[in-house]
Amino acid sequence: MELRDLASFYEIYKAKKFSSAAEILHCTESTLSARIKNLEAEVGARLFERGPKGVTLSEEGYLLLPYVEKTLFLLREARQTLNEWSSCAKGSISIAASNYISCYQLPHILCSFKSAYPHVELNVHVGRSSDVINMVRNYEAQIGLSRSPLSDPLMTSIKISQDPLVLCVYPEHPLAHLPFVDLKDLENYPLISYQKGSDYWSFINNAFSTIGFTPTVFMKLDSMEATKKMVSKALGIALLPQLAIQEELDHGMLRAIKISNPPGLSRATYVFFNRNKHLSGPLKGFLKIAKLSCP
Q1: Count of alpha carbons within 13 Å of 209, Cβ hemisphere only?
Q2: Which DSSP state fits 111?
Q3: Which CATH number characterizes residue 215's domain?
Q4: What GO terms are given for molecular function (predicted)?
Q5: How far is CA 228 from CA 131, 137, 204, 211, in A?
Q6: Cα-to-chain-centroid distance, residue 264
């Protein structure tokens, strides 16, 4: 069956006149009649009855109607999907991400995104969470990713992942064999922490305050990569997101111990954008992939 014959059948059914349907389809009545004859020949039945009020479907026509409607619907849906794909497959997006996300999460997202949209240009800006938020707020970036929750009526914020924190130790450490640890059990072990004032320091400090315990801080750093190196050299232990040490865990360089107290110690990752900003095809594609790519 020809799709144009099915479309002609449907328009005649709606218009109840060959002349009106011909105008809608931008063809002559004779062309329309020829299409219907072709369709009737294929199905082996008369599809229309002529009457004083125009044409109506025959019994066979009514039997055919739902199949025609479904076929035309699927065709429209296919065209829409292809149009959306075409709009998503080109263009550019600007992304602002915090340091942690740009190192440990964004590469996974962009790897999947680039496979799906190879012709989209990517502009990535890296900074502190406050800088990322300001860049999106000031339209310097179209979309932002941060570990800090956002409460701004002008922004749309979506949580895309929840990353548990673990106790990170070197393989020979006395605690390395334990499946779980209470933070109070760290009393006799030197801790490597972040510099005071950072978002990560505040988060860790609040975790210890929750259980009424003050750890022995041996060293303060402002780099997660440096912290991992120090732990691997047996200079101390640290609380780190599991995602940040996954490569070292896979190679046996570090050990991760789950934290039982306080329970549920984890950090979320958020993606956000201006609420009144139109989301282009590439941005919609990025949001969808970000939700699927983050652990």
Answers
A1: 6
A2: H
A3: 3.40.190.290
A4: DNA-binding transcription factor activity; transcription cis-regulatory region binding
A5: 25, 33, 16, 25
A6: 24
